[in-house]
């Protein structure tokens, strides 16, 4: 057993997980079915075939506990996996807490985030199915970057619609996507019916992930050699991300430590599910007693203030209906800097787990998140992406509670990406120009009024 006071816990490539974990197999009840947007009946594989290869459709609906990772995917994973588990000794000292704080760092991937964990297998399965091009949306740009990288590995073209506010805030993200070979458009765009409809109503629209999804889906559905790829929300995406939590379990076993609290940021849910689902398996089996907490933006609070209801995954209503915590598919979130968390809904699987009472959720204001990000950078030496600063803020809050109570809790989070291309946001915070936006009740009520009826 390793010294539990080490700074980083590493795994050898030979210890990398060779299976993805499917939480559905171990839940006390199955999630509600996904419904066809026209018939409102449960969808079948044929309904998804215009957008996804059959291999991913099978993973989306499987009840098997584990799914083998193809060798060609493992070969690409080895560029950065296994990722390190760090103990934040310097942050602990700065906080004066008896708690131990650990973070699983996914910023070591080629794209700088956790997103390639699913982008690589999605590109692989599409290439194997004979697809030539992938379309997608992206918020902060992490997903668009990851899919462009993954598409290049398997000889595919990649076309990305990025939420306009993030597109304008992060010009270097566009260059990175183009360097990997992707084509990128600001959304809403004039290239699709969905985009033109939004611009007709609001020429200055900041965009949203829901709008960008509509544009990418519209293009994919209209071309037989093109499929759509989604970076979060869906079951198969969260499945692929479980390599994060599976590795973390092995790393904690090496030092003989078990976490008491796990905190992850949530937008659509892929990073949070990837970290926590393997630990939740252990909790459901009675092998681990752990509190699991989701951290989301105050301005886009789908878990803490959204309604658990059937809703479209996109703004135009092109996608199937999913039962999830939602702010309404018409909801346009405030253009906060954590673009990856600006989504109106939450993963149906995470929403179901939340309804079962297996996880908690908190909402954090933007300025508190960036304060945590700066504190982390000045102690641990990594500038975090704006998204995981939400989890870092919640970790710091927990660690400060431990300072008051004297409890030596073990806290784990996923630092799901670095913020090297988000420095303009840090600049706004450091200059005192950052504001917090609390979602007004009337704005939320108006968006929820547009939910599909009679469901």
TrEMBL record:
This is Tryptophan synthase beta chain. Belongs to the TrpB family. The modification N6-(pyridoxal phosphate)lysine is found at residue 115. HAMAP family: Trp_synth_beta. InterPro entries: Trp_synth_b-like, Trp_synth_b_CS, Trp_synth_beta, Trp_synth_beta/beta-like, TrpB-like_PALP, TrpB-like_PALP_sf. Residues 79-417 form the Tryptophan synthase beta chain-like PALP domain. GO terms for molecular function: L-serine hydro-lyase (adding indole, L-tryptophan-forming) activity; pyridoxal phosphate binding; tryptophan synthase activity. It is an enzyme of class 4 (lyase). Its EC number is 4.2.1.20. Keywords: Amino-acid biosynthesis, Aromatic amino acid biosynthesis, Lyase, Pyridoxal phosphate, Tryptophan biosynthesis. The gene is trpB. Pathway: Amino-acid biosynthesis; L-tryptophan biosynthesis; L-tryptophan from chorismate: step 5/5. It comes from Catenuloplanes indicus. PANTHER family: TRYPTOPHAN SYNTHASE, TRYPTOPHAN SYNTHASE-RELATED. Gene3D superfamilies: 3.40.50.1100. Tetramer of two alpha and two beta chains. It catalyses: (1S,2R)-1-C-(indol-3-yl)glycerol 3-phosphate + L-serine = D-glyceraldehyde 3-phosphate + L-tryptophan + H2O. The beta subunit is responsible for the synthesis of L-tryptophan from indole and L-serine. GO terms for cellular component: cytoplasm. Its cofactor is pyridoxal 5'-phosphate.
């Amino acid at each position: 057993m390793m010294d539990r006071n080490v700074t980083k816990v590493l795994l050898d490539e030979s210890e990398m997980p060779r299976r993805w974990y499917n939480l559905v197999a171990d839940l006390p009840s199955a999630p509600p079915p996904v419904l066809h947007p026209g018939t409102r009946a449960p969808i079948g594989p044929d309904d998804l075939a215009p957008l996804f290869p059959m291999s991913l459709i099978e993973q989306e609906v499987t009840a098997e506990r584990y799914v083998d990772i193809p060798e060609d995917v493992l070969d690409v994973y080895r560029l950065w996996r296994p990722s390190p588990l760090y103990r934040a000794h310097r942050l602990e000292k700065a906080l004066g807490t008896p708690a131990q704080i650990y973070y699983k760092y996914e910023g070591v991937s080629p794209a700088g985030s956790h997103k390639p964990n699913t982008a690589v297998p999605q590109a692989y399965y599409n290439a194997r199915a004979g697809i030539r091009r992938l379309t997608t949306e992206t918020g902060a740009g992490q997903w668009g970057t990851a899919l462009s990288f993954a598409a290049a590995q398997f000889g595919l073209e990649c076309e990305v619609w990025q939420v306009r506010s993030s597109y304008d805030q992060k010009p270097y993200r566009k260059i990175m996507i183009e360097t990997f070979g992707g084509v990128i458009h600001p959304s809403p765009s004039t290239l699709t019916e969905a985009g033109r409809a939004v611009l007709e109503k609001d020429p200055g629209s900041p965009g949203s992930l829901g709008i960008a999804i509509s544009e990418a889906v519209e293009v994919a559905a209209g071309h037989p050699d093109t499929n759509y790829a989604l970076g979060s929300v869906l079951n198969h995406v969260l499945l692929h991300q479980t390599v994060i939590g599976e590795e973390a379990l092995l790393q904690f076993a090496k030092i003989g430590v078990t976490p008491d609290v796990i905190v992850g940021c949530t937008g659509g849910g892929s990073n949070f599910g990837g970290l926590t689902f393997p630990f939740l398996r252990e909790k459901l089996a009675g092998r681990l007693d752990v509190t699991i907490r989701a951290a989301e933006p105050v301005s886009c609070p789908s878990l803490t203030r959204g309604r658990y209801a059937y809703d479209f995954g996109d703004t135009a209503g092109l996608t199937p209906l999913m039962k999830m915590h939602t702010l309404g598919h018409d909801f346009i979130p405030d253009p906060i800097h954590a673009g990856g968390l600006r989504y109106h809904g939450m993963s149906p699987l995470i929403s179901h787990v939340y309804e079962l009472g297996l996880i908690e959720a908190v909402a954090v204001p933007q300025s508190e998140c960036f304060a945590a990000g700066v504190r982390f950078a000045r102690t641990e030496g990594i500038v975090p992406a704006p998204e995981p600063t939400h989890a870092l803020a919640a970790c710091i809050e927990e660690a400060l509670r431990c300072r008051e109570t004297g409890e030596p809790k073990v806290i784990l989070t996923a630092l799901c990406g670095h913020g090297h291309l988000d420095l303009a946001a840090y600049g706004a915070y450091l200059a005192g120009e950052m504001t917090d936006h609390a979602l007004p009740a009337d704005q939320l009520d108006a968006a929820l009024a547009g939910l599909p009826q009679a469901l």
